[in-house]
Structure formats: structure tokens, C-alpha cells
């Protein structure tokens, strides 16, 4: 039996990358359905020019994950309920500075609506839910893939709402064949450097660009915490593989770096590659955060103040389940050091493209 796929989150970076790889690997594709908001329809249609698939095998549906039945046209529902075999739910607000109300609407309520909808599908083989490793919040120490509610607090509304959303997904695991993916901070492709958004580790490059005329750029904080940055191609390849093997049903996976570098070393490697210089001295994080209270300074440096919280939380994300179940697939997380040159090269070429920068408020 051929597979019929349903995606939320298109034309977002990870969803688009998943779609391209899925088409490339030809997983017995019969049809692919992409759920998009009406206001992103034109952008979605333009994005499809980069997807090598016959138009007859792909349908864009307008809808809204925060509505009942995802606001999909009622006449299409019987077709989808009988045909869909794989659902990939990626639609979410990923901004670490997101307001609480918006995060709750999209990340929590939206996931509840998707959960309700997938339970109406009669031939579902897999529901793949994209969570985040950072549902661990401010917990420190070794974080297991089986851990979730440990009474933790959170650094921002993004983490807190993704935590609540994952709890909602866990409630239906016994009813629906589910695989939960928890990526680390996703960066560009390991071999090309390509990305559509300069956030996460790119905030460091933004700052280096803004301060490149300065002879002294310091470290911020001790930098002893792990910098858990994973290239998008690793996350995509691992997700597609796990979505099609029975051993991944009911499992949760940290798609994080099994051997991450300390944040101080990540910072040093990026500065060396971008500016050919090394950091001088150290500025306490409390001082750096106090400066970033000033909106014009945040905007000039293109850094979200909330991003500095990831320099302080001493967490290690255990990858036992992921490494075990990916064994034999040939899929491994590349060493961050080996990806730095392409990451910086891509940033250097596209740094003036404002569509790749998030809006700093």
C-alpha cells in the first residue's frame, strides 16, 4: 500500500526540508497534503517550485490548526480520513520571545486540535509530533528522552507551551501510533549551510557582524554549558527514517548532538571563522542582559535578550534511544566543528537579506 502524507507547518524551514527529503527518498508516495494558512497560500505555492514532485501527487489545503477539524473544507474530510497514513505536525510558534497568549493558542490549543483530528483517521500508520529538547525548561543535569514532567520551570513561553503541548500528545500515544521528535537548536544544512532563518547560534554571528570594527569582543558568561546545535539535514534524515520503522512507535527521541561542545568553544569557533580573531576577556551574563534591555541595542546587535538564557542552563540531553534506533541507518549527527565553515560562509553571503533575520523588538 502506498502512503499518503499530511504536513502542518509548510512552508516553514523544517517542514520544507522534510518534504524535499521525503520526495527524494520516494517512500512509496501516493499523495502529499500540505495544510497552510490562507494568508500563506501564495508563499506556499512559490515554495513548491523547489520540490521535485508531480503536481498531481500534491495538494495544498487551506486551513487553521487552531480550529475544529483544522478548518479543512468539509467535503474533503471523508477522503482524508480514509487515505492519510502519515501525519507530520510541525506548525508552531518557535520564537523564544513569543508572547504567552499567542504561544498558547498555536502551540497548545493548535496541538490539541491536531490530536483530535488524527484520531479520526482510519488508516494512520504514524503521527510524528515535533516537540523540542527544551521542554526540559530550566532542569539541569542529564535529561532522558523518557523524561517530561519533572516539576521544571521554564526560560520562556515557547518552552512552557511546547511542554504543555507534548503532555497533550502523550495522552493519545496509547490510541495513535505516535513518534515524538525533540530536536536541539536547529541550524543550517551541514554541507551547504543553507537556512531560512538566522536565529539560535546565528545570534552570535549577528553580534560579530555588528561589532566587527571592535578590536576586543568578549565572551559572555563562563560558557561551560553545552551548545546543542544540530544541522537540519540530520534532524530531517533521522525523522524520516524513524517515521517509517515500527520500533519508533510510542518512542520519544532527542535529536540533539550526542557530543556537544561547551558554549564557550562554539562561540570561539564561530568568531575565529567569521572574524579570524579570538574573544578577549569575559563579561558576566548579568551585565550583557542588562544592556540588552535597551531596544535600540538589541536591534543593532540583532540578538533576542532571551537567547542569553541558553548560556546558563547546564543540561545534557541523553540520546540513548535515538542512537540505538538509528543504528544501521547510516544517520549520525555531524561534529559541529566540521559544519562551522559552511555555516559561516552561508551567513556571510546572506547576512544582508532581511527576510532571513527575525524581527527584534
From TrEMBL:
Give every Thioester reductase (TE) domain span: 8-238
Q: Which GO terms describe its molecular function?
A: alcohol-forming very long-chain fatty acyl-CoA reductase activity
What domain of life does the UniProt record list for this protein's source? Bacteria
CDD domains, from UniProt? MupV_like_SDR_e
Name the Pfam families for this protein: NAD_binding_4 (PF07993)
GO biological process, alphabetically ordered: long-chain fatty-acyl-CoA metabolic process
PANTHER family, per the entry: FATTY ACYL-COA REDUCTASE CG8306-RELATED, MALE STERILITY PROTEIN 2-RELATED
| The name this protein goes by in its record | 3-beta hydroxysteroid dehydrogenase
Origin species, per record, is: Bacillus solimangrovi
Instruction: Print the organism lineage.
Output: Bacteria, Bacillati, Bacillota, Bacilli, Bacillales
Amino acid at each position: 500500500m502506498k502512503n499518503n502524507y499530511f504536513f502542518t507547518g509548510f512552508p516553514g524551514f523544517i517542514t520544507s526540508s522534510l518534504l524535499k527529503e521525503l520526495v527524494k527518498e520516494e517512500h512509496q508516495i501516493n499523495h502529499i497534503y500540505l495544510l497552510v494558512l490562507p494568508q500563506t497560500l501564495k508563499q506556499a505555492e512559490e515554495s513548491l517550485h523547489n520540490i521535485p514532485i508531480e503536481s498531481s501527487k500534491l495538494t495544498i489545503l487551506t486551513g487553521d490548526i487552531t480550529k475544529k477539524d483544522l478548518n479543512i473544507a468539509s467535503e474533503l474530510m471523508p477522503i482524508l480520513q480514509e487515505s492519510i497514513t502519515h501525519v507530520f505536525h510541525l506548525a508552531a510558534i518557535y520564537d523564544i520571545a513569543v508572547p504567552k497568549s499567542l504561544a498558547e493558542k498555536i502551540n497548545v490549543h493548535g496541538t490539541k486540535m491536531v490530536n483530535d483530528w488524527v484520531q479520526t483517521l482510519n488508516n494512520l500508520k504514524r503521527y510524528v509530533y515535533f516537540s523540542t529538547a527544551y521542554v526540559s525548561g530550566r532542569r539541569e543535569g542529564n535529561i532522558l528522552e523518557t523524561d517530561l514532567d519533572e516539576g521544571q520551570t521554564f526560560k520562556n513561553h515557547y518552552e512552557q507551551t511546547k511542554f504543555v503541548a507534548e503532555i497533550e500528545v502523550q495522552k493519545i500515544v496509547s490510541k495513535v501510533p505516535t513518534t515524538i521528535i525533540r530536536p536541539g537548536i536547529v541550524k543550517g544544512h551541514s554541507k551547504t549551510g543553507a537556512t531560512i532563518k538566522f536565529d539560535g547560534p546565528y545570534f552570535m554571528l549577528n553580534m560579530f557582524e555588528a561589532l566587527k570594527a571592535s578590536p576586543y569582543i568578549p565572551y559572555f558568561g563562563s560558557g561551560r554549558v553545552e551548545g546543542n546545535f544540530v544541522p537540519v539535514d540530520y534532524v530531517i534524515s533521522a525523522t524520516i527514517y524513524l517515521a517509517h520503522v515500527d520500533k519508533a512507535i510510542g518512542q520519544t527521541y532527542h535529536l540533539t548532538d550526542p557530543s556537544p561542545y561547551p558554549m564557550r568553544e562554539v562561540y570561539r569557533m564561530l568568531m575565529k571563522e567569521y572574524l579570524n580573531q579570538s574573544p578577549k576577556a569575559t563579561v558576566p551574563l548579568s551585565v550583557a542582559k542588562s544592556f540588552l534591555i535597551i531596544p535600540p541595542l538589541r536591534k543593532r546587535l540583532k540578538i533576542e535578550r532571551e537567547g542569553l538564557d541558553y548560556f546558563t542552563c547546564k543540561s545534557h540531553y541523553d540520546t540513548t534511544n535515538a542512537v540505538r534506533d538509528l543504528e544501521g541507518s547510516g544517520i549520525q549527527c555531524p561534529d559541529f566543528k566540521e559544519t562551522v565553515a559552511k555555516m559561516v560562509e552561508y551567513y556571510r553571503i546572506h547576512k544582508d537579506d532581511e527576510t532571513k533575520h527575525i524581527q527584534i523588538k
